[in-house]
# Entry
Amino acid sequence: MQVTFLGTGSAMPTGERFQTGLLVQEDGRTLLLDCGSGVLHRLEQSGVGYEAISTVLLTHHHLDHVADLLPLMKARWLAGEEQLEIVGPQGTKGLVDDLLSVHDYMQDRLDLQIREVHQGEFSVAGFNVSAYETRHSLPCLAYRFGDLFTFSGDSEAFAGLANFAEGSAVLAHDCSFPDDVDVSNHPTPETLGTALAGHDIGRVYLTHLYPHTDGRHDEMLESIARQYDGDVRFAEDLTTVTIE
# Structure
């Protein structure tokens, strides 16, 4: 399996990190996880391109995770592609319907297949996926791909989510702010380290990074390491991780 970080940033642009998007590829199957602003450009820069994206799996509906969804639809239509599957938590159909009501010229340009999923197991784009409800300000799902890869989506760090990721070769986890920022709905390094303590995870990548984290990576890693002794790294846009 290959996981490419298309966007590792947040709702506050830095110029270097685009908003959330990850590409999951295995044995000819391709899945886009989230589609924030800039993801469409990163797809081109990755060499994969929007033409290869026939399925999008959304963690939740905040703007920095869905802003390029309609641009993806338009690009695929203009390129002669005929369909797109959009899968996500409760409210996904309403989200797409609302987008198309504003930009009504996009109505019926693609054969849209929209599916809402809940906590539990399902299949999408040929992948078997497990979903787990996170702690965020909107309904949000974390997703696990067997023992290979888990993506937290947006969430506070807590024991249930760490248990969900237990045994994963790679975990990409929200770590939006350093410890001195008072925040809810997202973790800080201290809370993430506490949640992960004692868990067996091959490697953890920190993502969904706000500008507040710039220049503070070392101290954030040190904070996590006080509780969790695993391999923790910062994700970067366009980094591809091969997982076996």
